[in-house]
From TrEMBL:
It comes from Aliidongia dinghuensis. The gene is ihfB. GO terms for biological process: DNA recombination; regulation of DNA-templated transcription; regulation of translation. One of its GO terms (molecular function) is structural constituent of chromatin. Heterodimer of an alpha and a beta chain. This protein is one of the two subunits of integration host factor, a specific DNA-binding protein that functions in genetic recombination as well as in transcriptional and translational control. It holds the Pfam family Bac_DNA_binding. Keywords: DNA recombination, DNA-binding, Transcription, Transcription regulation, Translation regulation. Belongs to the bacterial histone-like protein family. SMART domains: BHL. This is Integration host factor subunit beta.
Amino acid sequence: MTKSELILRLAESNPHLYQRDVERIVTTIFGEIAEALARGDRVELRGFGAFSVKRRDARVGRNPRTGDSVRVDEKFVPYFKTGKQLRDRLNAEDA
């Protein structure tokens, strides 16, 4: 599902809201999650999962085309861990 599909579904299920307002709400939520992660904070959505930032150490990698060694700097990457309710829903026997 893309962001625009999410906005469309939410707008359809909430006919009392204008689509532009739903778009603003979704954009604000995503923006706040991104800002929190940029600050190094953890974002937990109970029943859904938690977003956090993990640090990857600097390392020596390989260029797959030439095989040459390439230095890869330290970096921070977003990480998502599913919540128990979401995991249970995905692994339900009757699904």
